[in-house]
Amino acid sequence: MSDYARYSRQVILREVGVNGQSLLRDSTVLIIGVGGLGAPASLYLAGAGIGRLILSDRDHVERSNLQRQIVYRNTDLGRPKLDAAADNLRALNPECSIETRPGPLDDAGLLAAIREADVVLDCSDNFPTRFAVNRACVAARKPLVSGAAIRFEGQIALFLPGGPCYACLFGEGGEAAETCEEAGVLGPVVGVIGAMQALLALKVLLGIGDDSARLHLWDAGKLSWRGLAIARDADCRVCGNPT
């Protein structure tokens, strides 16, 4: 290990250890969307010692982003999010290799990026992207950590190859998602869900626990969590066997 002091607080965990830290160093995580969810997720993953992060986004940093997208600084205003995030993540941990894939990715580009990853984080904010990411993860047989947040509400789910997929839960005919621009969101709400996405990614890579096939719903107003089982849809057009 090149920098034990940096990772010492997690290396001493029985579930991690030196071998687990080496596993994280040799892992690749793809983050689709470096906004409210992707910003905290990327910071925690880089800090944890993920060896390679691939980021995809298409936007530029705006002043309204700074309330919650904590990977950016005031000096980043107007810059492409990918460039700003990559610089700030490298400043946090020079050992983490940061690569960028400017979006929006077409189906072929998305599938190619996902095939490079060990875990995929969907931190996007719209159903078309979520469905496209899900289809590519099913095709490439890659774990998918999906998150969403708005107002005082958040949700997160882990989908593993062979189990139910995102389309089993929502169907590919989902209505247009309400946006934070329209409905608002409290910064720490996306921070919690983004941090949880990073946590699930680390647990998958380390082989800790079994968090798949459950939708976790968070009510930040009441500080309460609720979990729902996700059943596989045999007729799912993505992962099922439609007749």
Main beta-sheet strand count, sense and barrel state: 8 strands, mixed
Strand percent estimate? 15-25%
Distance from N terminus to C terminus (CA atoms, Å) equals 52 Å
User: What structural category do the secondary elements indicate?
Assistant: alpha/beta
Fraction of helical residues: 25-40%
Q: How many individual β-strands?
A: 8
H/E order of the elements? HHEHEHEHEHEEHHHEE
Query: Spatial order of the strands in the main sheet?
Result: 3-2-1-4-5-6-7-8
- Number of helical stretches of at least 4 residues: 9
Shape: globular
Tell me which oligomeric state these chains represent: single chain
Mean pLDDT: 94
Low-confidence stretches: none
Rg from Cα: 17 Å
Structural notes for this entry:
With 243 residues, the chain is α/β, with parallel strands linked by helices. It has nine helices and eight strands. It has an eight-stranded mixed beta sheet, sandwiched between helices. It is globular, with a radius of gyration of 17 Å. It starts with a helix and ends in a 14-residue tail after the last strand.
